[in-house]
Specification:
The structure is a homodimer of 283-residue chains.
Chain A: E1 7-11, H1 15-26, E2 30-34, H2 38-47, E3 52-54, H3 59-62, E4 67-70, H4 74-84, E5 93-96, H5 102-111, E6 117-124, E7 144-148, H6 155-168, E8 172-175, H7 178-201, H8 214-220, H9 227-236, H10 238-260, H11 264-278
Parallel strand pairs in A: 1-2, 1-4, 2-3, 4-5, 5-6, 7-8
Antiparallel strand pairs in A: 6-7
Chain lengths: 283, 283
């Protein structure tokens, strides 16, 4: 059980880290933050969403923390663990927020000393803006939170990380293996970002903004994309993403063939299927 | 100039026809409607958005109308013109709302007798629901309206159809050739619907609704699609749609290759370009 006497450290105080800190402070937890920018810490202290802040990993920041939440890019996370796990107290539970799991979870678990436990989690929430100044824990409402335990994890720690998702305000908490998570995220999130980026870059569009309807705007909203983070996420989930891109392209090929051959029946059949399926996704 | 003494007939009283009728009646015009469903007419009369209704083309419905607005599917429109233009008074201006222009405008102009003039128009507005009961002229606010004149048209009639767009409440009125319109619409609207339909039909998704974020929902909102109308629109704009599908697929191929070869620099460059371009499309 995640009780309010647990001391929490958020490592990486950006949009997601800041939103976690805000939600957990409101819930009565003592939340400290460790992040490189002193300005981010000053802002978070002023806003009252953290109790203390640190710009460098140290004994003082970590030795009394029961839970450490990493809100870092995947590669930075594993490097951090290697270098700084020595400061974390025995028995602490560690979790993260990264958007790929297979390439992160096993590596972190492998690196950790036996007295620490890492349970991966993926909060499926975000905004097109970044930084702690845009932190807003209302982004978790209505959103999904996925916990990705492995055979290494204990039921106690998994339960604690699930509790964390509930306390943050997520509407649905799910448990998936890292592999299932990555397959699902390759299709639902990474492929959709590939489509948006391809649509936005495949031809000159500057002169077209006068003519766009909502459909083009909807499809390209996520074409505003953090290139550092997403290129890393794509490449860490490469095989699965390629598989999903190929599944999609093959379906586009079927649709193209129906258009090319004037096959109205196939077009209508696909449209009816998509209409029917889309109804399942209405909130 | 489109003055309020002009008498208007809306042919086809669905979502768009009904919304036109509502907007124009509010603007003080006398608006009659011709549509197959007596129930639709009863509803529109009761709601006060038309002054008279007819279920069959006839002298009575058409002989006093200065402007006739066709809110019909493309193929139905050309068949209607062939059979019923005899009822329309000399000097009337005709326009439409169809989503493809090259395959419609020239054909209608060719069919018309010399004393009638047709100016194509495309109101880029819609909803995921249909029928006059869902009519709502607020859908035109913030939306684009495109007039597609040809060499056959007179400045007076083109101006009148532009005025119509303004009176309906569209935020932006543009003039494009039918060919330019069709190229633009193939990319901005038809291709986006192809992407949404392909994404929704390329694999089983029933079990995935628990995990979707907003990105998947945004990209597939338009996967709920009127199969009769859109299959017709796709096939009437076949060459241009195929061209745009190929442009898109080739760009997806570049992105795929970058993922496959671990080329982070190309991924980041495409993401930065898409981010920059997308900013142009924010309302």
């Amino acid at each position: 059980m995640l009780t309010a006497d647990k001391k929490i450290l958020v490592v990486g105080l950006g949009l997601i880290g800041g939103s976690y800190a805000e939600a957990l402070t409101r819930r009565g937890f003592d939340v400290a933050a460790l992040t490189r920018s002193a300005e981010s810490i000053d802002f978070a202290l002023e806003k009252g969403i953290i109790s203390r802040g640190f710009t460098e990993p140290c004994e003082d920041a970590l030795s009394d923390r029961d839970i450490v939440i990493f809100c870092l890019y995947p590669r930075v996370l594993t490097a951090w663990i290697e270098k700084n796990q020595k400061y974390i107290r025995d028995g602490a539970v560690l979790t993260d927020v990264t958007g790929v799991k297979g390439a992160v979870v096993y590596k972190v678990q492998h690196l950790l000393r036996p007295s620490l436990e890492f349970v991966g989690a993926h909060p499926m929430a975000g905004r097109e803006v970044s930084g702690v100044r845009n932190a807003d824990c209302s982004i978790f409402r209505g959103a999904n939170y996925i916990v990705t335990p492995t055979a290494e994890n204990t039921p106690r720690a998994v339960e604690l990380v699930e509790d964390l998702g509930r306390l943050l305000g997520f509407s649905r908490i799910s448990v998936l293996s890292p592999e299932k998570h990555d397959e699902m995220i390759a299709f639902l999130s990474q492929l959709t970002h590939c489509l948006a980026v391809s649509l936005m870059t495949c031809r000159d569009v500057e002169h077209l903004s006068a003519y766009t309807g909502d459909s083009f705007r909807d499809l390209t909203r996520i074409a505003r994309i953090n290139d550092e983070m997403w290129s890393e996420l794509f490449l860490l989930n490469r095989e699965e993403l390629l598989r999903q891109m190929d599944v999609f392209s093959s379906q586009m090929g079927i649709l193209r063939e129906a258009v090319a051959s004037g096959d109205a029946e196939t077009l209508k059949r696909l449209m009816r299927l998509s209409t029917e399926r889309r109804a399942l996704f209405d909130k």
